Amino acid sequence: MSDTAHVVLISTSNADEARTLARALVTERLAASVNILPQVTSIYHWDGILKEEPEILLIVRTRADALGSLIERVEQLHSYSLPEIIALPIVDGSQRFLNWILSEVMTNEDA
Hints:
Layout: E1 5-12, H1 15-27, E2 33-46, E3 49-63, H2 67-77, E4 85-89, H3 95-104
Antiparallel strand pairs: 1-3, 1-4, 2-3
């Protein structure tokens, strides 16, 4: 089992998509938990045009060795052609909580 927990940020177009992704990731044991943050505003360039769009942000807790499967699953389910999927290692925190993340997420080795 990997001993590295990660936080993954994923933006979605609406609350239904956010809930669908969050439920799939937790149900499939690719994430220990997911927070859904409503009403974020994203400002970015896309196809040469400055965009300002409302989005929903997911904050996902997972293991390093599950990232590949998590990314693959998000790309399968996501409505965007290029979804934001950014993983950040958790460098410190409550060891009991970090252990819980590691115990909840399954990888190919666990199957």
